[in-house]
Amino acid sequence: xxxxxxxxxxxxxxxxxxxxxxxxxxxxxxxxxxxxxxxxxxxxxxxxxxxxxxxxxxxxxxxxxxxxxxxxxxxxxxxxxxxxxxxxxxxxxxxxxxxxxxxxxxxxxxxxxxxxxxxxxxxxxxxxxxxxxxxxxxxxxxxxxxxxxxxxxxxxxxxxxxxxxxxxxxxxxxxxxxxxxxxxxxxxxxxxxxxxxxxxxxxxxxxxxxxxxxxxxxxxxxxxxxxxxxxxxxxxxxxxxxxxxxxxxxxxxxxxxxxxxxxxxxxxxxxxxxxxxxxxxxxxxxxxxxxxxxxxxxxxxxxxxxxxxxxxxxxxxxxxxxxxxxxxxxxxxxxxxxxxxxxx
Length: 344
Fold this sequence. Notes:
The chain is an alpha/beta fold. The chain has helices at about 20-30, 40-45, 70-80, 100-120, 155-175, 195-205, 245-255, 270-280, 310-315, 325-340; strands at about 10-15, 35-40, 60, 80-85, 125-130, 175-180, 185, 225, 230, 235-240, 240, 260-265, 270, 290-295. The chain has two domains: about 10-180, NAD(P)-binding Rossmann-like Domain (Rossmann fold), CATH 3.40.50.720; about 195-235 and about 270-300 and about 325-340, Alpha-Beta Complex (UDP-galactose 4-epimerase, domain 1), CATH 3.90.25.
């Protein structure tokens, strides 16, 4: 009789493997003995990315998630037991200027993946990445799995479409599709165009006395210019957690007997001002002297206060975050200091 150790390794396919979540998830699955496949565009894989250090440890399948034939080929080649659909145009603010692309990548691509799995690998379990941005202008103090969606930007609208289609495919075709409605999660691997990473970068520049930063923002200006960091609405409030904790939840969701949706978040809310205070305080600086609100950077519509009610994830999955807000921000600032030291 074969023992469990003789069983073939589980196979997992990750879309969006070059991003923050994809790279952490790939590491987690490798630790658990999976054979990991990542779907990525050639130009994304061959330039530096969050998963570059995994070269030779995971198998890369080249393709574009917006192309149905690429998705079908990847599913056929990987023959996965589990699929993690993390690919996304991931910047809500930028979705205003790239609305058609956002709908294609965040919405229609998910449906094309579901179709590819339905026809080629119907027993595979699918994790679909949904977003707290879907709640938008909510009037509910804490959002759970039953809170209505009210999106306020193209990113969130596309995510709502994909999320609802995931449920439709699950119910109509008896497919295993589970969605994680993830609240904001950050780490040392976040790209600089994400707001919390900009704050960590700004604090690092202050620690190293860099007045004009080598990296530039979306408008082509130094992220830190004349010693100042420009941000949007400082009263924006979010539920921020640590990305490795969140990818652990993704894996736990696919280990359940029945597919269902889960809210994943810390249950705690912090303003952007709080984030600035913690980041700059970690390097002994007063954020008020280093940060200002630029009206140009304020979104046309901003979601209301979003904070997770992760009761279901705690009770059903046994999941809870292991890294708190202050520790996460401190890690991000230290990582930016290490990255910037050679400019000093």
